[in-house]
Here is the input.
Amino acid sequence: MSALEQAAVAQLVKPPIPPELADLPQWKGLVVPFVQVTLRDGSPDFRAVHESKRRRAIEQRLCSVCGRPLGYRIVFLASSEQQVAERVYHEPALHPVCAEYSVAACAMIAGCLAI
Ligand SMILES: [Zn+2]
Here is the structure.
């Protein structure tokens, strides 16, 4: 991550971390999602999803943020109305609390969310 990108992340408003997520890895006040790519220096690349972790989350029905097993109530984040209509999602599901945190913490998700 470039110095400019690091500065942009540092300036983001960071929502409070819910108690359910407090034990997860964090970086500069943000929870590091389970499916995130980790760079060689140990920092997360919030722009990139780790493909094998994404696949594992889908196949084993794990939350893409906390990596824990999903329960009955789950949330899918969609980037288009078409995805919602067709019920075809390319990213793993999330717990409701993890989805709420992600929408508040991630500008990329908040900016392209369909529902
Ligand atoms: Zn979760």
